[in-house]
Every structure is written in C-alpha cells, then in structure tokens.
Amino acid sequence: MTINILFAGHVSRWPDYREPLETALRAAGLEFDLRPEFADPAQVDYIIVAPNGPISDFSPYRRARAVLSLWAGVEGLIDNPTLNQPLTRMVDAGLTEGMVEWVTGHVLRHHLGMDAQICATEPRWHPVAPPLARDRPIGVLGLGALGCAVAQSLSRLNFPVNGWSRRDKSIAGIATRHGDTGLRETLAQSQILVLLLPLTPQTENLMNAERLSLLPRGAILVNPARGQIIDDEALLAALDRGDLAHATLDVFRQEPLPPSHPFWSHPQVTVTPHIASETRPRSASEAIAENIRRCEDGKPLLHLADPNAGY
Ligand code: NAP
Is 182 helix (H, G, I), strand (E, B) or coil? Predict the structure, then answer.
C-alpha cells in the first residue's frame, strides 16, 4: 500500500531533498507518495520535519506513525504540546563527518597557536613550538552521535580526551564521566573544552561562572552545540580576566548574532555563523528511509527522542 510522506522541512530545502529522498525511499523498497503538502493532513503517514518548517500544530496529523526530524537538535519540537507521535532525531553520517572536521580544525588552530604564528601584524621572530597533542587534554561535553565521533577523532590525533555524558558510558580511548562530580573532574582537565550537548532545561546555562571557573587558566572554549548552554556575561567576564584565553562560538542565544553583541568585537572571541555542520540531503535521506522501513516492518525506530530527557 502507498504510504503518504509529508516533507515539512523549510520550504527552501524541498528542491535539495526531493530527489535524494525519492531515491532512498525507493531503494528501501517503499511504495510512497512524497510531497511538501497534502490537502488532508489526516492522510499523512510520516512527517519529515524541521523546527523552521511550516508545521507548528501536529494535531491534524492523526494517522502519522512518526515524525522524523531533519535536525540533530530537537529542542524546537520535543516540547510541542501537539506532538504526540514518536519523534526521531537526525543522526546522519554526513552531518557527523562535517562536525568532526569543523571541531578538529578549530581545536588544531588553538592547539598549534596558529593565530600567533600566522596572524602576526609586525615582523617578529618568536619561535615557540606548540606542545604535542599528547600533552593537551581536551574535554568533550556530550558523547552522543556528534560528541562521540569528535572525541574519538581527537583521540586518534593523540589528544587525551575526557568526555562527559548524562548516563554512564564506555568509549574506547576516552576517559568517560557522568554526574556532577564527573563534570567537575572533566572541566578541571580540559585545556580545550568542546560543547556537544543538546539544549534542554538541564543544559541551559550549564557553562555558568562557577563551571567556567573550573577550567584550567588559559583554557579555550569551542561551542558548536547551542548558545543557551553558555552564560554569555560569565564567558565575557572570564575572557576579560584572562581566565579563559579564547572562545570559538558557532551558535548563539539569538541568531543571527545581533550586530551590537560584544562577541563580534571581542579580540578573544571567534564567531562563526552556525555553520559547524549541517544535515546532508543524500545521507540524511538514507537515514530517514531506513527508519520508515523499520517502522513499516514493525521494528523499533532508531534515534527516538525522549520527551522526559528533553532530547
Ligand atoms: P545526541 O546524540 O542526542 O547526544 C547528546 C549527548 O549529550 C549525549 O551523550 C547525552 O548523554 C548528553 N547529554 C544530554 N543531556 C545531558 C545532561 N543533562 N548532562 C550530561 N550530558 C547530557 O546529540 P548529537 O546528535 O550528538 O547533537 C548534539 C547537539 O549538537 C544537538 O542537540 C545540536 O544542538 C548541536 N548541533 C549543532 C550543529 C551546528 O551546526 N552547530 C549541527 C548539528 C547539531 P547520553 O549519552 O547519556 O544520552
């Protein structure tokens, strides 16, 4: 029987997703009708959705068996009171690959002191070799699809990696911790700290003045997760005191970051415009098709968001 699949990502992305989705759904052996709108919402079997897409009220989609997010971060969906269907997060090999590359690039920039070497504005010969990666402990907060891949990749470059997650977990080559004591221990050892947590009520403002003060003096913060995880004022104060050496920020409480925000002009802040990584239509379509196939076969959905945990 034909299954009706609604594409409810941002309207501008339909041309990018149409062909990859059709190809992946066909390869999964599904008979489908995929469209950016259906006249009758009650006829829709699956909804492919993004928080910036057209749906804010899921209640008319009474028949929908699952809502499949195009985004890894589901904070704009999971607390929608009209969403009663199972919600899946995007775990996409292309998205993960992009995040590993972005974080590795920024970590190596800071580790190797590239700014001092390359961006010198006056002739000066100051030959200080950077330490080896083995002598630069890194912390990764959040060890999910993205954090785990980032931690393992940095570990392969010889960085000692400390990771922190909500639940106890074991990852080869990574010193893993959880809980409040685990967080304090992780922060105390992180010369470079990478945030890859979801935004939830528990992680909002996690990096406040007290937790920032637990980082070693001169530490560097890299945030490609969500802006709300950091207390902006506390971060600026820590940078101004010299407690932190630099912050590389890809995400912000308000996006685009307002022109008047002090991050733009702060010499120790690097701003990037929420480009750390993005869902790639081809590999993401395969992930979506696989999940729809599983649901049709009566198997559990992969990467189900947990409304109690908030991600
Ligand atoms: P994920 O697979 O859901 O992993 C989340 C990780 O955070 C898990 O390890 C989880 O612990 C941990 N966590 C959640 N709540 C916690 C808490 N209260 N205390 C400690 N650890 C906690 O998510 P993901 O796919 O890796 O994505 C992470 C985030 O990256 C997304 O939510 C999104 O906000 C952001 N993102 C940004 C971009 C960008 O371009 N800037 C692109 C994609 C994603 P458990 O392992 O115990 O569950």
Answer: helix
